[in-house]
Amino acid sequence: MAGFDKVVTSYADAMHGLEDNMTIIAGGFGLCGIPEGLIAEVKRMGTKGLTVVSNNCGVDGFGLGVLLEDKQIKKMVSSYVGENALFEKQLLNGELEVELTPQGTLAEKMRAGGAGIPAFYTATGFGTPVGEGKESRQFNGRDYILEEAITGDFAIIKAWKADRYGNCMYRHTAMNFNPMAATAGKITVVEVEEIVEVGELEPSQIHTPGIYVDRVIQGSFEKRIERLVTSKGA
Predict the structure, then answer these.
(1) Number of structural domains, the chain?
(2) What is the CATH number for 53?
(3) Recorded GO terms, molecular function (predicted)?
(4) What is the average pLDDT score of the chain?
(5) Is 136 part of any domain?
(6) How far apart are CA 166 and CA 176, in angstroms?
(7) Which end of the chain has the smaller Cβ count within 10 Å, N or C?
(8) What pTM, to 2 d.p., does this model score?
(9) How far apart are CA 219 and CA 192, in angstroms?
(10) For the chain, counts of helices (H) and of strands (E)
């Protein structure tokens, strides 16, 4: 069954084929469940003109934020952008195009793209700037806008465990956008904490089936905390 083995041993192999002006869909929520090593490889490659679809753009100096340092990102499609000063600067200077999307709509855009559904109606955003210029219809007396699905040239994902066939499990809140993003890439690359033997994962516990995955790489993760909050006294 060697032909089904999707494990690669270098980040260069993991991101092989990424070129300027492509679209990357990245899993993660803030700094939780992000593919740290794959992002670092995109940084090393110096690929420019990228459209990046992700919940946010990391923070200054970490996560997707490192791709802003050399202006590798042309357009960001996100639902939250509040933790990155460099992002703000490039946006205000007209160096970065930003498409703000409601969070649930963003998740559904990825899911729909992965399912082969070109567009869907949602009530979210109707009557706001989000809905301007978009087709609208009324269903059961309520107004909806038409949102187009999202697909990407690459999807970069972080998982807890995967086998060599690319079957993946996520852990706790690191699941976030990863399952939807994994389905929406022409090439899906998973950076994983642990690679296990085929058959070790309980089939009913697999979150992303290997059919969606093209490459798997063993990663090493810092798992930085975005904002540490502690209680003051008991």
Answers:
(1) 1
(2) 3.40.1080.10
(3) succinyl-CoA:3-oxo-acid CoA-transferase activity
(4) 93
(5) no
(6) 18
(7) C
(8) 0.91
(9) 5
(10) 5, 11
